[in-house]
Design brief:
heterodimer; A: alpha/beta; Glutaconate Coenzyme A-transferase; ten-stranded mixed β-sheet; three-stranded mixed β-sheet; B: alpha/beta; nine-stranded mixed β-sheet; three-stranded antiparallel β-sheet; 6 helices; 28% strand
Chain lengths: 226, 227
């Protein structure tokens, strides 16, 4: 794909950030057939829209579904079949149900190939903060800590900065942590970035973006991936 | 002859004491035994601790129970749903205690209770705010925290089919917490859409064997209307 830029281009040409859907589409390209995948509620769920049913990627839902399919037609709804976001879904051929302890046993036992979560912040050591802000709502964690701590490969899908322009890629998370040292890769509207033992390593950027410009909107230090 | 099928709600709810820990099945409203919750409200036990994944939708089921003011504390993973109006109000007014537990830890704490395991180590929540006050231990280079089993005095369960021995099947994702909660309580009370003859359930499809079930009430309520 021509979106891959693997060198430090110093040109100052304008660039176009990806939409949430485009980030989901970009991430979906990196999921090989045969993987078992849990998609977090919110933006990560859109990744499924870019994995065709012919490719056998098996989606798991924390409430006990392995082999979750897309939303049903309005006249085909099974009212006992919902996803983690409490929306009606379907079960694909070959899918199965399990109870909650088995479902989270599967997650916590490291059996999934991939989990994709949204986040408020990711730190350069792989810490993730995605469950609580400093707001005054009742705290609600759901399955985020189990997924983050239990899945061997955790990717984050999020905007690179907040609406007010603050970097979501940070040296240390300021929001309450979900798990420590677990994020492997981040897909943002500007770049694909690996979390390595030496910090953030940029794999690709949107066309026209330079490493200097990306560093300008990123709190933690960046380097190009080897 | 073993016959766990009861004929009335009063019989189903008999003996639930004030101060009980009540495990309530369901994920959102799916698999949540709303008829039994109504029965518990009618029965009148108070000062309850409720364990459930969410904290109720609108003013029905679990939300209705919270609204009666008989729940002292709720243990849940996600006290937010589309419409958690009752819980939010009680919580803001300081009238209900909240223990937030990661969803998998909550399920495993009940599995442990049902399997005779008093506590276990897990990496979930290690290094986070939810680990505060818990024993932390490093095992082979990774941090773990100690979580206690979570037994119930009572479990309220929704099933799809039941027989008089209390063997149960479930419907689609309405299975969720129900089977694990059934194992973790002293008194497990089931509402079932269908009651079938002993022997009618395919033994290969029984998800909860009758040993975990105390009472079964036939509640053919039809389809859930909210998620």
């Amino acid at each position: 794909m021509n979106t891959i830029v693997k060198e430090n281009v110093t040109a100052t040409s304008a660039y176009q950030p990806l939409s949430r859907r485009q980030i989901a589409e970009r991430l979906a390209r990196d999921i090989p057939e045969g993987w078992y995948v849990n998609l977090g509620i919110g933006a990560p769920l859109q990744v499924a829209d870019y994995v065709s049913a012919e490719r056998e990627v098996i989606f798991q839902s924390e409430n006990g579904i392995l082999g979750m399919g897309p939303a049903p037609a309005p006249d085909q709804i099974n009212r006992w079949l919902i996803n983690a976001g409490k929306q009606y879904v379907t079960l694909r051929t070959g899918g199965s149900y399990m109870h909650h302890a088995d479902s989270f046993g599967l997650i916590r036992g490291g059996h999934l190939d991939l989990c994709v979560l949204g986040a408020f912040q990711v730190a350069e050591n792989g810490d993730i903060a995605n469950w609580a802000t400093t707001g005054d709502n009742a705290p609600a964690v759901g399955g985020a800590m189990d997924l983050a701590a239990g899945t061997p490969r955790l990717w984050v899908l999020m905007d690179h900065t907040t609406k007010t322009g603050e970097s979501r890629l940070v040296r240390r998370c300021s929001y309450p942590l979900t798990a420590i040292g677990v994020v492997k890769r981040i897909y943002t509207n500007l770049a694909v970035i690996d979390v390595t033992d030496e910090g953030f390593a940029v794999r690709e950027m949107v066309p026209g973006l330079t490493l200097d410009a990306l560093q300008g909107v990123t709190d933690a230090p960046l380097r190009m991936a080897a | 002859m073993i016959n766990k099928i009861v004929q009335s709600m009063a019989e189903a709810m008999a003996g639930i004491r004030d101060g009980s820990v009540v495990l309530i099945g369901g994920f959102g409203s799916i698999g949540q035994p709303n008829a039994l919750i109504d029965g518990l409200i009618e029965q009148g036990a108070k000062d309850l601790t409720v364990v459930a994944n969410n904290s109720g939708v609108g003013h029905v089921g679990l939300a209705k129970l919270l609204e009666t003011g008989r729940v002292r504390k709720i243990v849940c993973s996600f006290p937010r749903t589309a419409d958690p109006v009752v819980f939010e109000k009680l919580w803001r007014e300081g009238r209900i205690e909240l223990e937030v537990v990661p969803q998998g830890t909550m399920a495993e704490r009940m599995r442990a209770a049902g399997a005779g395991i008093p506590a276990f180590y897990t990496p979930t929540a290690a290094g986070t705010r939810l680990a505060e006050g818990k024993e932390e231990r490093e095992i082979r280079g990774r941090k773990y925290i100690l979580e206690d089993a979570l037994p119930g005095d009572v479990a309220l369960i929704e099933a799809w089919e039941a027989d008089r021995w209390g063997n149960l099947t479930y419907k689609s994702s309405a299975r969720n917490f129900n089977p694990v909660m059934a194992t973790a309580a002293e008194l497990t009370i089931v509402q079932s859409q269908h009651i079938v003859e002993l022997g009618a359930l395919d033994p290969e499809k029984v998800a909860t064997p009758g040993i975990f079930v105390s009472r079964v009430l036939h509640v053919p309520y039809g389809e859930p209307t909210v998620t």
